[in-house]
Structure formats: structure tokens, C-alpha cells
Specification:
Layout: E1 2-7, E2 25-30, E3 36-40, H1 50-59, E4 65-67, H2 73-81, E5 85-88, H3 94-103, E6 107-108
Parallel strand pairs: 1-4, 4-5
Antiparallel strand pairs: 1-2, 2-3, 5-6
């Protein structure tokens, strides 16, 4: 199975980058052979939509899962729509993250885990929608 790991560098000994959309590099790893390919994240400098761009990039490499620290809601949705499973909580080296994945130690994110974003979620949507503009 091919997986994409968000990484701070281009080697198996590089640290997992906890940020999916803003990581430097994705290591595309074949979990059976442990061979990997480093793919620079072209979305790292995007003003908006870095997570979606990163999701599209890894999808083009035929991965079935993403291993990362956190993933935002838009990237999670884009990955899910592409049939890619998302595993969060990865830490340590890329090699350690792949081994954690293979042993079942990482948890699959069934909903987006947002790290470092303030003001997202939390509201209960209880507004009454009674604004009367122009009257």
C-alpha cells in the first residue's frame, strides 16, 4: 500500500511535519517494500487552500492513506472524496510513523482534526435568521 507522510525533509529519518497542508515534503512510501519517493509540497506557500492543493498532489501519486499530525477540515474532505484515509497523531521520524501505521498504532480520523486554528467550530448554529435589511 502506498501512503503519504507529511515530512520536514526528504529522508526516512526526517521528522513528521504535524502540518499536512503546510509541510515541506511528502514522502510517498510503499509499506510493503519500505521504498519511498520525496515529493515537494507545491502548496506550502499558497495564500489560501494549501490543504486542498496538498490533498490533490498526494492523490495524483495513488496513495491510499495519509499519515500526519493534524489535517484541516477542507483537506480532510478533499482526501476523503479521493478515497484516501487520513491517520492523525503521527510523530517522530517518517520511518517511525510508517511502522506505527503498519502496527495499527495510529488512529484514523473520521472527522477533521484542526490544530492551531482559532474560531472554527464550537458555535451551535442557533441564530434566528431574522435580520431585516432594507426595511
Amino acid at each position: 500500500m502506498k501512503v503519504a507522510v507529511s515530512s520536514t525533509g526528504s529522508s526516512f529519518e526526517s521528522a513528521v511535519d504535524p502540518r499536512f497542508g503546510r509541510c515541506s515534503v511528502f514522502l510517498i512510501v510503499d509499506t510493503e517494500t519500505m521504498k519511498y519517493q520525496a515529493v515537494p509540497n507545491s502548496s506550502i506557500g499558497a495564500a489560501h487552500g494549501a490543504g486542498i492543493g496538498a490533498a490533490q498532489s498526494v492523490a495524483q501519486h495513488g496513495v491510499k492513506a495519509v499519515l500526519t499530525g493534524h489535517v484541516g477540515p477542507n483537506a480532510h474532505m478533499a482526501l476523503s472524496q479521493a478515497g484516501i484515509s487520513v491517520y492523525t497523531g503521527a510523530a517522530g521520524t517518517v520511518e517511525a510513523a510508517v511502522n506505527q501505521f503498519k502496527s495499527g498504532a495510529l488512529r484514523e480520523a473520521s472527522s477533521p482534526t484542526v490544530g492551531g486554528h482559532f474560531g472554527q467550530g464550537g458555535g451551535r448554529g442557533m441564530g434566528q435568521g431574522r435580520g431585516r435589511r432594507g426595511e
